[in-house]
Design goal:
Blueprint: E1 4-5, E2 8-13, E3 17-23, E4 27-29, E5 33-46, E6 51-62, E7 78-80, E8 89-94, E9 104-110, E10 115-121, E11 124-130, E12 139-144, E13 154-161, E14 165-172, E15 180-187, E16 190-191, E17 194-195, E18 198-203, E19 209-214, E20 219-223, E21 233-235, E22 242-247, E23 254-259, E24 264-268, E25 281-282, E26 292-295, E27 302-306, E28 312-317, E29 327-333, E30 340-348, E31 353-360, E32 365-370
Parallel strand pairs: 1-29
Antiparallel strand pairs: 2-32, 3-5, 4-5, 5-6, 6-7, 8-9, 9-10, 10-11, 12-13, 13-14, 14-15, 16-17, 18-19, 19-20, 20-21, 22-23, 23-24, 24-25, 26-27, 27-28, 28-29, 30-31, 31-32
């Protein structure tokens, strides 16, 4: 499965090993500008101490206007680094809408086992909440609950850990100091009776349902109203660890999942059973193990993949309402020289810009690359 090769429009070296990259749709910035908020998360192992040091770089990527072309994301507006006692950043996610004071909220998962919530106001980044450190496991991933309307003052975060556990915390998103109230914490995945890394966890469009993916290769669906001693369903469509779960932001019940085995499954959760999981599609190899999957901000049928050693892919799906979906790799970006762990969209319909941004780990590389160059101001 191959697609058209994409060209990059920006490239630079990241200060530490890059493992997460997250953007938001354009927001207002100052009097007459708009930006894509972009957060780059990194870490570096100090071999002399065994400590994983982390760093967050916040970029205000300018949205072109008046027919200008995309000029790149610019330099960081703010940096939080090891001098701030920041443990290695393994994952991060933006809260999906600005707060009443127009500030943005970003949550991070750390090698110390803790989660931290940051408020971004202009160029300032303030730590407004954190969980306790954990001695027994790294915090590998987190995800916000995307359910609820714009007036909601509370939200939830689900997090996964290297010791097989999954947690859910409720937070007051409108408060200046965000406290974490743990509502669920359970043993989710095992391999040969020992804890297995839980690489990913996510809420779904059903607020009572969560999904987790483990290193033993199982994708599990949980009913949060039950005792969580066992999952509702255990799906075994993959031949290696399940690494990413990406619910569709606009099409209820549709979820994309990926694995170290280099394949993607698209599910309609309404049709899932243990005996016949019946994914809407199960792709052939995309050329690398999956680590990130991002639905397009506007086009319901496109996915951006971060495929580790295979680079990045843009996938076209034909019809999400069908019981059998065609999966086609339309474009590829293969300039990364090591694991492509982070990938997200920089899209604006007004400015006619459609760019993808991605980062890779060992070569410490950031790229922004054209997706549909013939149709956009790139």
């Amino acid at each position: 499965m191959t697609g058209e090769q994409c060209e990059f429009v920006e490239h630079f070296k990241t200060p530490l090993n890059a493992c997460s990259l997250e953007t938001l749709p354009p927001v207002s910035w100052g009097d007459d500008k708009r930006i894509w908020p972009l957060m780059l998360g990194c870490y570096e192992l100090d071999e002399s101490t065994g400590k994983r040091n982390g760093r967050l770089d916040f970029y205000a990527a300018p949205v072109p206007h008046n027919g200008e072309k995309f000029q790149g994301i610019g330099s960081p507006k703010n940096v939080i680094g090891p001098s701030n006692q920041l443990s290695g950043v393994l994952d991060g996610k933006w809260y999906h809408r600005p707060r009443d004071d127009e500030s943005l909220v970003y949550a991070t998962a750390h090698a110390s086992g803790e989660m931290i919530v940051h408020k971004v106001q202009g160029e300032d980044i303030t730590l407004v909440g954190r969980t306790d450190r954990r001695d027994s496991g790294l915090c590998l991933s987190l995800a916000w609950d995307l359910n609820g309307d714009s007036s909601a003052t509370k939200s939830r975060i689900i997090s996964s850990y290297s010791d097989g556990k999954v947690g859910i915390h409720e937070i007051n998103i409108s408060s200046d100091e965000i406290g974490f109230e743990q509502t669920h914490f359970w043993d989710a995945h095992k391999m040969f009776r020992s804890p297995a890394e839980v690489w990913c966890a996510s809420f779904t469009s059903n607020p009572n349902m969560a999904m987790t993916g483990g290193d033993e290769g199982s994708l599990k669906i949980w009913d949060l109203r039950a005792g969580l001693l066992s999952p509702m369903h255990t799906l075994k469509d993959f031949s290696a660890g399940v690494t990413v779960i990406s619910p569709h932001p606009r099409v209820d019940h549709v979820v994309a999942c990926g694995s170290y085995d280099e394949t993607v499954c698209i599910y309609d959760l309404r049709a899932v059973t243990d005996s016949k999981p019946n994914p809407l599609c199960h792709s052939d190899s995309v050329g690398g193990g999956l680590w990130r999957m991002k639905w397009h901000p506007h086009d319901n049928n496109r996915l951006l993949l971060g495929a580790m050693h295979g680079g990045c892919r843009v996938v076209q799906l034909d019809d999400l309402s069908s019981k059998s979906i065609q999966f086609e790799i339309k474009q590829e970006f293969t300039n990364h020289e090591s694991m492509a762990y982070g990938a997200d969209w920089l899209v604006d319909t007004t400015a006619q810009v459609e760019v993808a941004a991605s980062c890779s780990f060992y070569d410490r590389a950031f790229y922004a690359w054209k997706v549909d160059g013939d149709e956009t101001n790139q």
